[in-house]
Amino acid sequence: MIVPKTLRTDFEKDFMPLMRQAYNFAFRLTYSEDDAKDLIQESYVKAFRFYDSFERGTNTKAWLFRIIKNTFINDYRKKSKEPQKYDYQEIEERYNGENATGESDKALRVDIVNDMLGDEMTIALNALQEEFREIIILCDLEDFKYEEIAEILEIPIGTVRSRLHRARNAMKEKIKEYAKTLGYK
Fold it and tell me: How many whole angstroms from its chain centre is CA 179?
């Protein structure tokens, strides 16, 4: 497929500056560097493929994040229907290799996120239900407006407000003890 140079240039100008934010969002959805990279790659391919349907003057970031979220959901649904697969060589390396201490990849993902947020905040955020975690990430970490979040998640704006309120209350409850140790009441 031959792509006109102006189309490619416009796409790069609109979407490439958002790559880091898009990756952060994908990572927070997947908790895996490799999965986040795959999700971003697939989402950017979809965004480029449907770039002609993108309405100029609208929120580029919201449009891209919606593609990322929908791609993540579709991949999750597809994977949940597949039978569990195991790579024998990977299992053997895990038990016989240097990482035979039993630490999982999840600990590594948690360490990476901990670099971005405080430990207690990260633990509290990860403990939230996915629908609440998404709202907190989009609103408080990615600075989307309520209208943009409603568009990305394809939910009414009232639901955004309600979930955000409940998510913040849940976060508050989860970090209450930690705040007391820092001298907050």
Answer: 26
Listed as own residue / partner, the contacts of 42-47 with beta carbons closer than 8 Å and 24 or more positions apart are 42/71, 42/75, 43/67, 43/68, 43/71, 44/15, 46/71, 47/11, 47/15
**Going by C-beta distance under 8 Å and a sequence separation of 6 or more, which residues neighbour residue 29?**
36, 39, 68, 69, 72, 134
pLDDT, tens digit (0-9, with 9 covering 90-100), for 155-181: 999 999 999 999 999 988 888 877 777
Q: Which residues contact 144 (CB under 8 A, 6 or more apart)?
A: 61, 62, 65, 138, 152
Q: How far is CA 26 from CA 6, 53, 66, 126, 134, in A?
A: 28, 23, 11, 14, 11
Alpha carbon distances (Å) from 172 to 80, 104, 128, 144, 158: 32, 28, 11, 21, 21
**Both tokens of residue 95?**
């038990």
Tell me: pLDDT of 66 over 70: yes
Say if residues 5 and 78 touch (Cβ distance below 8 Å). Answer: no
Packing angle of the helix pair 33-49, 19-30 (nearest 10 deg): 130
User: Virtual CA dihedral for 44, 16, 59, 9, nearest 10 degrees?
Assistant: -90
